[in-house]
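Internal tracking record. Fields below are filled automatically when a chain is submitted to the structure queue. Please do not edit lines marked as system-generated. If the sequence contains nonstandard residues, flag them in the REMARKS field before resubmitting.
Queue: standard
Priority: normal
Entity type: single polypeptide chain
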Amino acid sequence: MILRPSVRASGPARRRVATGAAAAFLGLAVAFGGGMTSPAGAAEPTALTGIILGVGANESQRTVTWYSSADTAQKLQVAPTAELVNGAFPAGAATFDAVGGANIATSGGFNRRATITGLKEHTQYSYRVGTEGNWSSAYSFKTQDFEGEYDFLFYGDPQIGSSGDLAKDQAGWQDTVDVSLAANPNAELLVSGGDQVESANNESQWNSFLAPEKLRQYPWAATIGNHDVGGKAYEQHFSTPNTDRSAPLYSNGNPASNTSGGDYWYIYKDVLFINLNSNSYSTAQGGGGDAAHLAYVTDVINKHGAEAKWKVLTYHHAIYSPADHAQDSDNKTRRVDFPTTFSKLGVDLVLQGHDHSYSRSYLIKNGEKANPAEQPGASDVYAGPGGVLYVTGNSASGSKYYDITKPDNSGTSGAGNGADPLNPDSYWYNSVQNQEHVRTYVKVQVRNDKLVVENVRSGTCAAPNAAVERGNWCNNTAEGQPVGSLVDKVTVHPYHGDGQDLQVNVPNAAPGEFGWTIDGYNGLVDLGTAEETNGTHFEANGKINPIVVSDSRRSLAPWSISANVSDFKDATKTFSGSYLGWTPRVLVNGAGSKAGTKVASGYDDQGKGLSVSRGLGSAEQGHARGTAKLGADLALKIPDSVEKGGYRATLTITALSS
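SYSTEM-GENERATED OUTPUT FOLLOWS
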């Protein structure tokens, strides 16, 4: 009579148990709200348009915003892409209820938004919006490591529609997005400089802005420009995290009016991002002006600055820029209001738009050049206490460029627009100024002890370049300054005070593994020839091949090894596996192992014996890591009515661990 051990899956004797894999979506929260109704019936399917992926409050979140043609209750559905089968979402896909309301009349329809939470690292996700029977197409995005270094991309004013040729503007914007992400496929954020469109509530322009498919794959961190603020379409199209929409942060002090506003912040890895509505800079119209923004920035940095290594501000109106807006009175106001507070709060980088030209400032401290000796175009700058770098992005679409203007005699600090003593053709505050009438974007590399800022050409004088195609000059040459070449590059080294900062990168500890293997050769367990006992039954005894259990996991999670036996068969003859019992033993202590309970043969107690799963050994939560060896004495008792034969059965061994 022989017994053959086996496992549930085919393959080598070594068996590893993955831990946590089934928990990929545990802990996902729901962003829920009310205010939507479901009509009794709809003649046509609800159209779902304008879908865009947005940045969340941290690495584990994303927002999704879209337009709906009907006022119906809708959801956002998300699942790891690997779990989709032939494009179908699994039954266990996470869903998040959407909130939203009616759009303004010029936009038509309704807006919806939902927040994805609980995302895991290094995972490709697919998502769709709508409801059962009326889902949008599926889109995907990928998360990366939630700690450490990364790159993000900053785009100056697309301002779709500005050239007067919507198709050309869209083509240039599409090309910049495609070129930048082809060169930087692992960029993790797309950061806006504002002015997504020319006319705040023109949905044709918004459709062109939203045309690139990459805007559904990479999170967009929106910024309000002066061309976006004059209506509600900006707020309808974008959902932003931690947003303060209180009255002082609107230019007219009225969030309910037909205008957009508010400030928001988020932390992505080691960077605290704060985004301001720079359209509200004066109290004359009823808003809180620059003072309200400074109070907001101060509060956010005081509460959250210690959670990040870097502080980056984004707003639309460039206070240090080289072109048409450099001498605007409103920018001079901000230039006086902002810099001292930014220096005192330890801001590292300020990203700006509005002036449709590129500039990189000197390090500015308290509204003055921090180091008078800093040279124009320096490739490395050292912040010192209070030094802040200001960058202005050129047009990302080519819809409009502004030409560089000349300095005046108004001074070389504060609100002044005087000449740089080291480079008289430039403003005193700018280390680099550039205008070639070509599309560009800014790449920021976030590293452990530096920020690397690059301005990169995404086009040449050739199409798509709407402003040039419609008659603007261009002095770029594809041979000399091709797509992907650098306009400027600077490395910002932070200030560490009078002491010496120490840093160590601690990776994720190896998770270890839990598994088992049959000790030595996996031979046949031969119970020999059963002996008749008391003239009533047969008995046979033996031992299983020992099983080695190893557990090196940091989680110290509980584990168990169990087994059950099939019926014994010899051709057409058979008897039940319930007649087999055992006495488990721990042969070598380790990994918190405890022997399972003795199981009697069903012949003795009319029970099920080992025909059902029984525990061989186990360990509790918190056990020590290590290795154990488990064994068991087998006891078979069968009625003497069983026919003569050589019977075999299979012992199936199962390992479980959380």
